Structures are given as structure tokens and as C-alpha cells.
Amino acid sequence: MMEEKMLTFELSPDKEILEIHCDKQGLEDLIYYLQKLLNSKSEPPRHDHLMTPSWSGYELSEEKKIADNKLLNKVTIYLWN
Fold first, then answer.
1. Which helix (H) or strand (E) is 28 found in, with range?
2. Rounded CA gap, 4 and 6, in Å?
């Protein structure tokens, strides 16, 4: 069974602020995904998708930390040259 971690991307109620909530494991995972993207040999723009389990992913957790925020189920990170 996969270890529980906290890594969520949430939009503030006014959709003006992106908040990233994580515990130590979630932060280590985020660093890993960014490092993996940085070391990718594919053609630009390089990208990676982080998704919640309900979107068939495992990279993001689904429990919001701020009740009024909107949870993002998919985050795509692009690396451009």
C-alpha cells in the first residue's frame, strides 16, 4: 500500500492565489518531479502531469487544507527552453 502524503494545489476562493500545501514527503515528491523534468531528454516543451487519485493519478492528495479553496485535480508543469 502506498504511503499517505500531503501534496495539494489549491486556488483561493477569489482564484487569485495558488496555494501549495505539503508535508515533508509531499515536498520531497514535488522536488523529485521537478528534478525529473529538469533532467528529461525529451523535446521542449517538456512537461509532466501531477494528478489526484480520482483523476487516475497518485502524485497529488485529495484532501483540501483550506475549506473555501478549490482543489486542483491536475497540475501540468512545463519546462521551456
1. helix 24-38
2. 7
Q: What is the mean pLDDT of the chain?
A: 93
C-alpha 31/C-alpha 45 separation (Å) is 19
Q: Are 55 and 73 in contact (CB under 8 A)?
A: yes
Contact predicate 49/33, CB 8 Å: no
Q: Can you give the pLDDT at residue 81?
A: 81
Question: Cell triple for residue 68?
Answer: 473555501
Determine the Cα–Cα distance for residues 5 and 25; give it in Å rounded to an integer: 6
Identify which of 22, 13, 1 has the alpha carbon closest to the alpha carbon of residue 69: 13
CA gap 71, 64 in Å, rounded? 6
pLDDT tens figures, 57-70: 999 999 999 999 99
pTM above 0.90, yes or no: no
pLDDT at 1 over 50: no
